[in-house]
């Protein structure tokens, strides 16, 4: 019911704040430690897929808080997810909490501020509540279906509503495009890394711009946190974000927030495919996501407007 959902939202927001503060305590304890030789992380699948004590302890805290309050709900967390479990197992119809205790683990280990906790509540496969808290940045993003998306509980998202149309015909001029590198470092000519570099070049290149159809992108970014990418698309700071290789905990809270802010999510490759891609009903379980920021009332089909 509405009331129950409201309670879940309030609980998730408080839990996000508490978990983020815990993360920040871990980060502070590390100030000055760089190079001390202390074992800060261990490797999972490869040398860039890492886990820290902060990931594990924050997940344990979030998991036990949820289980205490909602003992019948299912819990999926990045660190408790067991390798080899079938992907079908992940998100079903039942009420499910999907949590990344520390998104941007590499950033965290370098004390690069782009890291956050991400908590989503999913019903019937739909991300309904999303909480993302980046404690170093003091940015809290929250959303609940039907109640809008918010920054620090006071500013409604998107903050910026111009200037591009929501589904540009090709890489739109004047936008900021964000793309993550993921963790796959296998260097094959047609592999992930190469395709990403290629799409970066396509987006950045002058070709395709200045012909009245596209235009040069203003900038290309890689934050190192897929979760914060979503939040920044919802804010309007990023126009487009794309990544192949995400897991449910990387995207669930971000999807709830972006959808509530009026943005679009699809599973496609930029820039060629996104015009024809199906936008409705993003299926959690895909690895590939493309997010497009909310359009504003000042957007037009043909061109950009500046404020
Ligand atoms: C990762 C980050 C990274 C993205 C990866 C994610 P983690 O999450 O969001 O930017 O490229 O796909 O798995 O491991 O830091 O929680």
UniProtKB/TrEMBL annotation:
<dbReference type="InterPro" id="IPR033942">
    <property type="entry name" value="IMPase"/>
</dbReference>
<feature type="binding site">
    <location>
        <position position="102"/>
    </location>
    <ligand>
        <name>Mg(2+)</name>
    </ligand>
</feature>
<dbReference type="GO" id="GO:0008934">
    <property type="term" value="F:inositol monophosphate 1-phosphatase activity"/>
</dbReference>
<feature type="binding site">
    <location>
        <position position="103"/>
    </location>
    <ligand>
        <name>Mg(2+)</name>
    </ligand>
</feature>
<feature type="binding site">
    <location>
        <position position="100"/>
    </location>
    <ligand>
        <name>Mg(2+)</name>
    </ligand>
</feature>
<dbReference type="Pfam" id="PF00459">
    <property type="entry name" value="Inositol_P"/>
</dbReference>
<keyword id="KW-0460">Magnesium</keyword>
<dbReference type="InterPro" id="IPR020583">
    <property type="entry name" value="Inositol_monoP_metal-BS"/>
</dbReference>
<dbReference type="InterPro" id="IPR000760">
    <property type="entry name" value="Inositol_monophosphatase-like"/>
</dbReference>
<comment type="pathway">
    <text>Polyol metabolism; myo-inositol biosynthesis; myo-inositol from D-glucose 6-phosphate: step 2/2.</text>
</comment>
<comment type="similarity">
    <text>Belongs to the inositol monophosphatase superfamily.</text>
</comment>
<dbReference type="GO" id="GO:0046872">
    <property type="term" value="F:metal ion binding"/>
</dbReference>
<protein>
    <recommendedName>
        <fullName>Inositol-1-monophosphatase</fullName>
        <ecNumber>3.1.3.25</ecNumber>
    </recommendedName>
</protein>
<feature type="binding site">
    <location>
        <position position="78"/>
    </location>
    <ligand>
        <name>Mg(2+)</name>
    </ligand>
</feature>
<dbReference type="GO" id="GO:0007165">
    <property type="term" value="P:signal transduction"/>
</dbReference>
<keyword id="KW-0672">Quinate metabolism</keyword>
<keyword id="KW-0479">Metal-binding</keyword>
<feature type="binding site">
    <location>
        <position position="250"/>
    </location>
    <ligand>
        <name>Mg(2+)</name>
    </ligand>
</feature>
<keyword id="KW-0378">Hydrolase</keyword>
<dbReference type="GO" id="GO:0006020">
    <property type="term" value="P:inositol metabolic process"/>
</dbReference>
């Amino acid at each position: 019911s509405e009331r129950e959902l409201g309670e879940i939202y309030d609980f998730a927001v408080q839990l996000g704040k508490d978990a983020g503060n815990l993360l920040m305590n871990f980060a502070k304890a590390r100030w000055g430690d760089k190079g001390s030789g202390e074992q800060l992380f261990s490797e999972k699948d490869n040398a860039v897929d890492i886990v820290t004590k902060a990931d594990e302890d924050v997940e344990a805290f979030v998991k036990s808080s949820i289980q205490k309050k909602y003992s019948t709900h299912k819990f999926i967390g990045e660190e408790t997810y067991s390798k080899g479990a079938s992907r079908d197992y992940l998100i079903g119809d039942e009420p499910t909490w999907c949590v990344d205790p520390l998104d941007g683990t590499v950033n965290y280990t370098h004390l690069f501020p782009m890291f956050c906790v991400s908590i989503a509540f999913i019903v019937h496969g739909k991300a309904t509540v999303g909480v993302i808290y980046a404690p170093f940045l003091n940015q809290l993003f929250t959303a609940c279906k039907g109640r809008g998306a918010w920054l620090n509980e006071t500013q409604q998202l998107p903050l910026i509503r111009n200037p591009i149309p929501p589904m540009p015909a090709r890489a739109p001029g004047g936008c900021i495009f964000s793309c993550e590198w993921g963790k796959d470092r296998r260097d094959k000519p047609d592999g992930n890394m190469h395709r990403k570099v290629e799409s970066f070049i396509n987006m950045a290149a002058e070709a395709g711009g200045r012909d009245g159809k596209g235009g040069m992108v203003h900038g290309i970014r890689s934050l190192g946190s897929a979760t914060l990418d979503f939040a920044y698309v919802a804010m309007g700071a990023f126009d487009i974000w794309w990544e192949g290789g995400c897991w449910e905990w990387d995207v669930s809270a971000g999807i709830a927030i972006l959808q509530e802010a009026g943005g679009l999510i699809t599973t496609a490759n930029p820039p060629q495919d996104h015009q024809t891609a199906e936008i409705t009903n993003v299926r959690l379980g895909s690895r590939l996501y493309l997010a497009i920021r909310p359009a504003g009332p000042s957007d037009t089909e043909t061109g950009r407007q500046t404020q």
